[in-house]
Specification:
Helix content of chain A: 25-40%
Distance between the termini of chain B: 23 Å
Strand content of chain B: under 5%
Number of helices of chain A: 4
Oligomer: heterodimer
Shape of chain B: globular
Number of helices of chain B: 6
Number of strands of chain A: 12
Structural class of chain A: alpha+beta
Number of domains of chain B: 1
Helix content of chain B: over 70%
CATH topology of chain B: Arp2/3 complex 21 kDa subunit ARPC3
Number of strands of chain B: 0
Chain lengths: 287, 172
C-alpha cells in the first residue's frame, strides 16, 4: 500500500508538469495566432452542441410546465388584474399612438428611416450559457450553415442583445452588451449626442449598463431618453435600440456625463433571439 | 477502464448541465459551479492523477466554449484537481464535512484566482463588491448543491456496496 502511494504521487507530479506545459503552450498559441479557432469550433459543434440543444429544450419545457402550474393558481387573480390592465392599456395605447407619430417625425429627422425591418434577420434559440458567473455570453443554435458570421448583431424583441464573437458550423457564441468586456458606441436619439456604452459586471445584477463620455453641452439629455447604436460604430449597425437612460451625472471634468442605462432587452429571460445577417459596412483600408 | 468511461461521461454531462440547467436555477445571476464539484470530487475520491486528468479536460471544455484563451481554465481546474488529490487519505465516504470544506475552498480559490487574473488586471478594483455579490454567493450555492449531490451519491454508494460485497463473497 505504501509503495503504491509513493509511485502514484511521482507519476501525478510528472503528469501535472506535462499538462501544465501543454496548457502554457496552448495559451501562448491562442494568444499569438488563431490556429485553434476553426478546429475547436468544429469539434465542439459535434461533441456537445447536440446535447446542449436537447437538454436546453428539456429545461425550457420543464420551466414552462412549472410556470404553467404556478399560473393556474394565479389565474383567477391574473384575470382580474388583466381586466384592469386592459383599461390601463387603452389609455396607454392612445398616448402611444401619439408617441408613434412623434417617433416617425424624429426618425425622419435623424434619417433613421432605415429601420430594423429592412435588415435581413434569422431567428435562433439560446441553447447554452457561459459556464460561470463572470461573463455574459451565450450559445445559439445557428452557425455558418445558416449564414451566420462573426460580428453580426443580435437582437431580441426591439433591442440590441449583443454581437456574434465566435461561430461554428451549427452554433455561434454571442457576447451580450452587458458583458464586462463589451463597449458599444451609442447616441442619444433625441439629441444625437454620442456616448460610450460599456457593460459592467457590477451593474449586471441590477440589469443596467454603464454609459460614459456623453458630451451634452446644451444640457438637453434627460433621464428616460432613448439610446441607440451610433452610426460611427465599426461593428454595430446604426439605430438599434440599446435602452433608456435611467440615471446620469456630470463627470469630475465637467465636460462629460456618465450614468446608467436600462437595456431594452430582458437578459435573464431570453430564449429566442434574432441575428441580423447584414454586417456593418467596413472600410477596406487597402483601397 | 470502467472508471475512465464513467469519468468521461461525468465530465461531459456536468459540463452540459452547467451550461444549460444552471442558468435556469441561478439566483440573481449567480449559479452554482458544478464543474468545481466534479473536479474536486474526482480529486479527493480517486487521487491526484484522476483529479489532474478530470480537471484538465473539464477546463479544456470550458475554454473551448468560453472562447477565451485556450488552456487557462484547463490549468486552473487541473491544479484544483491536483490539490484535492492530497486529501484522498483523509477522505471517508460518509464524511460530508470534509467534502463541503474541500469543494467550498476549491470554488473560493478558483473564483478569487479568476477575479485576480480576469478582472483585477483589467482595472476592476472593487474586490468587496465581487466578493459579496459573486464569489461568496457562488461558493454558498455550490456547497448547497454539493450537499444535495452527496446525499444522493451516498445512497447510491450504499446500494452499490451492498451488491459489491455480495459479489466479492461469491468470488472469494
Amino acid at each position: 500500500m505504501k509503495r503504491k502511494r509513493t509511485k502514484f504521487t511521482l507519476q501525478s507530479k510528472y503528469l501535472l508538469l506535462i499538462l501544465t506545459g501543454l496548457c502554457i503552450v496552448l495559451m501562448a498559441v491562442t494568444f499569438t495566432t488563431d490556429l485553434f479557432t476553426g478546429m475547436v469550433a468544429r469539434i465542439s459543434g459535434y461533441v456537445t452542441i447536440p446535447f446542449q440543444t436537447g437538454i436546453s429544450e428539456i429545461g425550457g419545457y420543464l420551466s414552462d410546465r412549472s410556470k404553467d402550474l404556478a399560473q393556474i393558481r394565479d389565474l383567477q387573480k391574473q384575470n382580474q388584474e388583466l381586466q384592469e390592465r386592459i383599461d390601463q392599456l387603452t389609455i396607454e395605447n392612445n398616448t402611444l399612438t401619439q408617441e408613434k407619430y412623434e417617433l416617425n417625425n424624429l426618425r425622419s429627422l435623424y434619417q433613421l428611416d432605415q429601420e430594423y425591418s429592412e435588415y435581413e434577420k434569422i431567428g435562433a434559440r439560446v441553447i447554452g450559457m457561459d459556464g460561470g458567473n463572470w461573463f455574459n455570453t451565450f450559445i445559439i443554435d445557428k452557425g455558418t450553415d445558416d449564414g451566420i458570421a462573426i460580428d453580426m448583431n443580435v437582437m431580441s424583441g426591439s433591442g440590441l442583445v449583443g454581437i456574434v464573437t465566435e461561430v461554428g458550423v451549427n452554433w455561434a457564441r454571442v457576447t451580450a452588451i452587458i458583458d464586462d468586456t463589451i463597449n458599444v458606441p451609442g447616441m442619444v436619439l433625441a439629441t444625437g449626442d454620442r456616448l460610450m456604452v460599456s457593460g459592467d459586471l457590477e451593474l449586471m445584477s441590477e440589469n443596467t449598463i454603464r454609459f460614459s463620455k456623453l458630451i451634452d453641452s446644451e444640457g438637453k439629455v434627460k433621464e428616460g431618453d432613448k439610446v441607440v447604436t451610433s452610426n460611427i460604430s465599426t461593428k454595430y449597425l446604426p439605430g438599434l435600440l440599446i435602452g433608456y437612460i435611467t440615471s446620469m451625472e456630470a463627470d469630475a471634468n465637467n465636460l462629460t456625463h456618465s450614468g446608467s442605462i436600462t437595456p431594452a432587452v430582458d437578459f435573464e429571460h431570453m430564449d429566442q433571439v434574432l441575428v441580423i445577417l447584414d454586417l456593418k459596412q467596413q472600410i477596406d483600408e487597402n483601397e | 477502464m470502467k472508471n475512465k468511461i464513467l469519468a468521461i461521461f461525468v465530465v461531459i454531462f456536468s459540463f452540459i448541465l452547467q451550461s444549460t440547467v444552471c442558468r435556469y436555477i441561478a439566483f440573481g445571476n449567480v449559479g452554482p459551479n458544478l464543474l468545481i464539484i466534479t473536479t474536486a470530487t474526482f480529486g479527493f475520491m480517486m487521487g491526484q492523477k484522476a483529479g489532474i486528468t478530470v480537471g484538465f479536460f473539464t477546463g479544456l471544455l470550458v475554454d473551448i466554449f468560453s472562447g477565451g484563451i485556450l488552456g487557462f481554465h484547463a490549468l486552473l481546474y487541473m491544479y484544483i484537481g491536483y490539490f484535492n488529490g492530497f486529501f484522498k487519505r483523509l477522505f471517508f465516504k460518509d464524511d460530508l464535512m470534509l467534502q463541503i470544506l474541500l469543494v467550498g475552498c476549491s470554488d473560493f480559490v478558483y473564483s478569487i484566482t479568476y477575479y485576480l487574473l480576469m478582472f483585477l488586471l483589467r482595472g476592476r478594483f472593487h474586490i468587496g463588491y465581487y466578493l459579496m455579490n459573486i464569489i461568496i454567493p457562488e461558493v454558498v450555492y455550490t456547497i448547497l448543491l454539493t450537499i444535495i449531490l452527496f446525499s444522493v451519491m451516498t445512497l447510491f454508494n450504499r446500494l452499490a456496496e451492498k451488491r459489491r460485497s455480495r459479489s466479492s463473497e461469491e468470488i472469494v
